[in-house]
Specification:
By secondary structure, the chain is mainly alpha-helical. The chain contains 31 helices and 11 strands.
Length: 720
């Protein structure tokens, strides 16, 4: 298992699977590597200057020693992060030259057995961007795409859908805070099995209390062979989530009969069901490629494997629970790329049009957007009530903000045109809306004239089952809309037809839900906001925080956050912070509640005033406050487009530049790929990415076409 993990990780580094015996030319070091280092690196890491105690003018091809391999890994990291050569150097190497050196180092690490730790790190989602972006989308790589044969652990969501009891033992946690549905290449350990059996015991005990097994009561006669077979079929379906084959029915029926002979009716039945829980299929979903092998040594997924792959890519349910997949299985039309593309589109159409992308029917679609944008973090950012009152936020409703943001995504999913740019740049938002204009109109007409207690003429919200009214609309303050401070006066005219234009906003990243999710409990978080933009929209790579660095920004009541952040411009800090601070600081035009602002206010002692309540109003009226403009300026680098790169005045300008860029579109596709494939991309996936982007562009920016392309690609359908 360890070897297979390393081979998979090695494949992430190159266009082909890198085998341990594979070797670069002996001439590569003196003819390619040494000249590259001499031209671009020795100036800072040579006899006159030894920056970072790294000396390169005497470096050798010495991967066999620990010190040598560690030195080369440091060089590899610096080249990957874009830190070496320094970005301000006039004579920067061509990206292709840098990529050649990077590939050589990676191969030498593998050949010498010094890459284990490095390769394992590359499996984690947060390291996916290390694959060279330009090469990935270049179209130059002709290696046939594939995915390694692997097992998928049953996810917590699937565990829940199967109505198991207790906490899921299948939770797989990585360092990534968002996308977690990665295929697991490690075996289930003892603690997982123990937790599984504890849950099985609770599940069975609950079913016994409900008298589900009355036919197998010990005071009943021995069950007939017909009852035993039917019981096996039903219990297998409940535990494994599919219909058993004739052979499986016969196997478990024989086991159940034998267990009854040994332990009696009830114990025999319970023991047999526990055995089903220990079946590999109850724990894993296998993707070994049981179909035909092609001329490249790739194995096609069998129709049954494809059915499961599609079902669990889009839903948390087995293939029999989705009509389009079930019918294709019955008709035996699930073997070709065209079959898969048709079924995927049917599954999407079936739910998009009639279920409004409802989370209960297409959960993994909306889960991707929640995880990609990190919106659920808004629920975890604690907002103190004292601060809330001082900030004049009448009611803090993170769930409402998240629901509003979700409606923007749903709206553009249904339009399905120019999707990526639209969700990143739109200035039209939903606010306190039940979810659909037709539904809102119906609610308004049915309940508009009713007054029930404190309920007034405004429709209820989609995130509740109640008809709620004026009091709920107090949470609209984060949009800079006038909220009611009492239940007798409505200050914002709630429009039925939405989305509505919101000034000074551009896309999900300027929505109060995203701004809150990527903030602290008491202020903005420009660092992690900038990292998000760099990694999620610009396909950038950020170096891990050195262990000896204090990441805390000192408090100073006399300075704005951006002013306090000046300390990271010190040489050691700025080499990393330059990549994301200028991106994250553009969001300073909003406070941590999500409200637009253009001024900072200071009291008589020159201390920053954050309150916006009646006390603040009095201070303004009596002219006890001074002010100065909010500085939301920043800059974009590394987009690959000179028209996108450059200084920006604020987040709105930044998002309008980035949102329509090639880099943002391609970066989005990379993250969507990881989500559906359950792994990081390899250079050998290049054709999959090129085809997916082409499908998206040719369809006018259709998200559906993008999903269909990915789920019918060779990366999805072939194993090796």
């Amino acid at each position: 298992m360890k070897k297979s993990v390393l081979v998979f990780a090695a494949a992430l580094l190159g266009s082909v699977t890198l085998k341990p015996e594979a070797s670069g030319s002996d001439a590569d070091f003196p003819e390619i590597i040494q000249p590259f280092l001499k031209e671009h690196c020795v100036k800072c890491h040579g006899p006159k200057k030894k920056k970072g105690k790294l000396v390169l003018h005497t470096i050798k091809d010495d991967f066999g020693s620990e010190a040598g391999s560690e030195r080369w890994i440091e060089i590899l990291n610096q080249l990957t992060f874009g830190e070496m050569p320094p970005p301000d150097e006039e004579a920067r190497p061509e990206s292709s030259d840098t990529a050649e050196v990077v590939e050589w180092i990676q191969k030498r690490l593998i050949e010498t057995g010094k890459a284990d730790g490095y390769l394992k790190k590359l499996l984690a989602p947060e390291y996916g961007n290390r694959v060279n972006h330009e090469k990935l989308f270049s179209g130059e790589i002709t290696t046939p795409p594939f995915s390694p044969s692997r097992l998928w652990r049953v996810s917590p969501a699937i565990f829940k859908e199967r109505n198991y009891r207790g906490r899921s033992p299948f939770t797989y946690v990585t360092g990534e805070k968002e996308i977690r549905d990665y295929a697991v290449l490690s075996p289930v350990d003892r603690s997982t099995v123990q937790m599984l059996m504890i849950n099985a015991e609770k599940w069975l005990e609950n079913r016994r209390k409900n008298n589900d097994f009355k036919e197998f009561s010990n005071d009943r006669p021995l069950p007939s062979s017909k009852l035993i077979e039917e019981t096996v079929r039903i219990q297998f379906l409940r535990v494994i989530s599919r219909q058993p084959s004739k052979e499986e029915i016969a196997k478990y029926a024989a086991l159940l009969t034998r267990n009854i002979e040994i332990g009696g009716n009830m114990d025999g039945l319970l023991t047999t069901i526990k055995t089903m829980f220990l079946s590999p299929e109850a724990i894993y979903r296998a993707e070994f490629g049981l179909g035909e092998t092609d001329e490249h040594g790739r194995r096609h997924l069998s129709p049954a494997e494809i059915a499961y792959a599609i079902a669990y890519a889009l839903t948390d349910l087995g293939p029999e629970r989705t009509q389009a997949i079930r019918e294709s299985m019955i008709q035996e039309k699930l073997s070709t790329k065209e079959d898969v593309a048709r079924v995927v589109r049917e599954v999407l159409d079936e739910r998009i049009q009639f279920e409004y992308w409802n989370s209960t029917r297409l959960p993994r679609i909306m889960r991707f957007f929640n995880e990609y944008f990190g919106l659920p973090h808004a629920l975890k950012v604690f907002k103190d009530d004292t601060r809330r009152n001082q900030a004049a936020i009448g009611f803090w409703h993170a769930e409402g903000l998240m629901f509003d943001a979700k409606l923007i995504i749903i709206h553009h999913l249904k339009k399905d045109q120019n999707f990526i740019e639209e969700i990143l740049t739109t200035d039209r938002f939903f606010v306190a809306h039940p979810g659909d204009n037709e539904y809102a109109q119906r609610i308004y007409e049915e309940n508009g004239s009713k007054v029930i207690g404190s309920i007034r003429q405004f429709p209820g919200f989609g995130f509740t089952n109640e008809a709620r009214g004026i009091g709920d609309l107090s949470y609209i303050r984060p949009y800079n809309l006038p909220g009611n401070r009492t239940k007798d006066k409505q200050l914002w005219d709630w429009p039925v037809e939405q989305p509505i234009q919101m000034p000074r906003r551009a896309g999900i990243l300027t929505h109060p839900a995203w701004l809150t999710a990527h903030s602290f409990n008491d202020g903005n978080d420009p660092i992690h906001r900038g990292i998000w933009v760099r990694e999620k929209l610009l396909a950038g790579v950020i170096q891990d925080l050195p262990p000896d660095v204090d990441a805390q920004v000192p408090a100073d009541p006399h300075k704005t956050l951006k002013e306090r952040m000046e300390l990271v411009r010190a040489e050691r800090c700025w080499s990393c912070h330059r990549k994301f601070n200028p991106l994250g600081e553009t969001f300073e035009m909003f406070d941590d509640w999500g409200r637009y602002r253009d001024q900072f206010y200071f009291d008589g002692e020159k201390k920053l005033v954050t309150r916006r309540d009646k006390e603040f109003d009095k201070m303004k009226e009596t002219k006890l406050l001074s002010s100065r403009p909010v500085d939301s300026t920043g800059s974009i680098t590394g987009s690959g487009d000179s028209e996108v790169d450059g200084k920006v005045k604020d987040a709105v300008e930044m998002m309008r530049r980035i949102g329509g860029s090639d880099r943002a579109r391609q970066s989005f596709i990379r993250h969507l790929f990881r989500y559906f494939m359950g792994r990081n991309e390899m250079l050998s996936d290049s054709k999959t990415f090129v085809d997916a982007e082409q499908a998206y562009l040719e369809s006018g920016g259709s998200f559906q076409s993008l999903v269909v392309s990915l789920l019918s690609s060779d990366s999805f359908l072939y194993r090796r």
